[in-house]
What does this fold into?
Amino acid sequence: MNFQFIVFFNFLIFLMGVFGIFYSKDIISVFVSFQFIIISAVINFLSFSQFLYQSSLWGEIFVILGITSIYFLMFCIVYHVHIYLKMDSLDREALFREFKLFKITKSDWWGEDNI
Amino acid sequence: MNIVLSINEKISPLQSVIILSIVILISSFFAISKSKTIKRLLIILASVSLIMAFYLNIYSFISMGSFSNFLLSFEYMQMIEVSIIIFSALNLLFFISIYNVDSSHFIKIMILFLFSTICAVFIVLARNSLFIFTSFAIFILTIFQLVTSLNLKMDKSRPYIFGYFLRPTLTVILFFFGFSLFYVATDFKDFNQIMQSEYISNPLIILGLIVFGIAVYIYFFLFPFQSPYMKLIKRSDYSSNAVIWFSYFPVGIFMFSKLDGLFSFFIEKNNLYLSIFFIAITFLCVLASSIGAFKTNSIRRIVSFLFLFFIGIFILNISMLSAGIITRISMSWFNISNIIMVLLSFIPIYSIISSIEKSTGSDSINNIRGFGRSNIYMCISLIVIFLSWFGFAYHINPFIKYFGSVNFLKMGIINMILLLAVAIAFIFLLINIFRIIFQFFRKPLTGAVEKIVFPKFLYIYVTLYALVILAIAVIGVLEILNINIEFINFKITQV
It folds into this structure.
């Protein structure tokens, strides 16, 4: 496969992930955006391991351990959201409304944040 | 005795980790116990183990010197950082025990807490990029679990916990991407190797550093991305706030200090645009946090904003490095002294304000109106602690040295703006300090101050901190006045 194509494709996936993080509102979209960045990093590791470093084992080990720890963290968050959703269906709307990752509200800068 | 010494040599520098792991193992046998006696015994055991870990960490460095291999690096800076982590862990254990000892999950919470401390120690000790990354990811995981379990009864805070921890998750993912870029540029396994190689100017390394920089910025919830942090602190349980302030943030700073060698390579070049960028961020963080703290009446929010203010001071240090006012080593020492100052002041402040909120049931600043009239002793201790923030003035010293060696007309607009940033930050800090102190002596609201009752141990706890702060202040002032008391060789102002 053309190496240049892999690099450009990889960069495209990363940009999709970044765009998704800024644009997504609900938690599922946020996690999908995270996945894009993870996939982009994995492609980096594996393709360069193949092309530059003669299939060096380091890249593969990093991918396995890195992916395991990231997914473990993400699984814990998703599992907790799942438990939370089961608890009270009324709060579900609030949950989805609050999840824009870079939301800016006036109360975070000035005055009070009333519950 | 020889066997103990040989074991000690073999496990160096991981003595602190081994001791804490043994406590986790013992505690896990009693994880579902609800007996108060067992809980108390385990608290004592954990406290003793943390004290031992603190001692052994320093002792092993003094007796065996620095240590370095493929995975770990344990030098002077690491010894100080691990000591800071263990010190704040000891205080956190105290707070968690006070607020959660009646919880049926207390022992599990304690185990999680010790796990997070071990991960934090690993982050500091790690040298290898893979080791740094995995320990960092697992640290975030344990902090998430800890904060969640501390907020089990606070249903309203739950969506905000998810919102909060999506950010550190993003940080972990960006770190993963950043490490992949480093791997693409060079197959070196640690940052020191990259620094010493010719690949340092590789564009991919620079891109990786930009990604790391963004990740660290997101991790600290710096302006304008502070929303989840402010929302969670306002709504969560007080002990989980302590975990965020005294464990999550310090570890982030130590994580940054791992990368500061690489960052400094580019920052030290005194690039004009880079300097302008850092100064702009410094202004934003310092001004926004100061004004935010001034415009709110909620004590939780005031402390949260002030905490962000002190995180902004780390960026100020980077700006000073970028403008050539200080060197890289000075910046590292400034960061360490800053974090010590933050911990020594915020821990007692936290203990008092949490106690006030517990007594009065609200976190309004009006609750401390007249506090200075009703509880003079605690009020004086608090004033001493607040005034310790005057120590922030040490940032002026490098400017005096710098301007002393450079012609006033040639010092440049960037340095002038930076000095202005320091002055503004100091003025705003003073305004916030005196705003709080002013509340102590105002006419109290009827019935509010009478409700505030402190447990006796809190008097001892706060007094200890006030005395330490006073001692540091006296030594500092004596050094500034060039009075040699020959008490210790280390000079605070030498930095």
